[in-house]
Input
Amino acid sequence: MRVCVLIDGGHLRVLARQAGYNYNPDYIEKVAHACVEQPESLLRVLYYDCAPYVGTATLPVSGQPHEFKGSDHWLRTLAEKNLFAVRRGVLKFRGFKPKKIPIANAPLTDDDFRPDFEQKGVDMRIGLDMANFSAMRSVERLILVSGDTDCLPAMKHARINGLQVVLVTFPNHKVARELLWHSDIERRIAWPAS
Output
């Protein structure tokens, strides 16, 4: 049975770091292969994520400019791995948010705030790829690593068109019940050793 693994990188990154794993291209590859069981045959791994934000913003208290620097080297390294394709969204800077509720009359500093970023385009790319697989029938099963209910319409579409949808879950983490309702199989995998 031919399968494709679709990984929401933002979702996987949060869970892997919470579980204490070093999130890098080699570990992502291990997780992707752990999602596939015998007698499944892996066609491809599609990884969806955003490169780090690069740009300048004005700090909220001091008004000083702050430069955000990042590299997409790790995404390029991942894209070079066998059977991997990287689908990039865009990371948008949405301003600064307080780290905690400020204490009354206490002076605020820039350190009391954290940058707020929003991923754009990742869910749409996952949905489009699921729809394309449904139309082209190049696989029989989609293996989805995501906790985002925005994927529900694409999951329903794939199932209506005869594909099986496997939802990957991890130890000590609960997913939205709606994701389980609209998948055919829940596949709980253990974290691979790093």
About this structure: The longest strand covers residues 41-49. The mean pLDDT is 95.
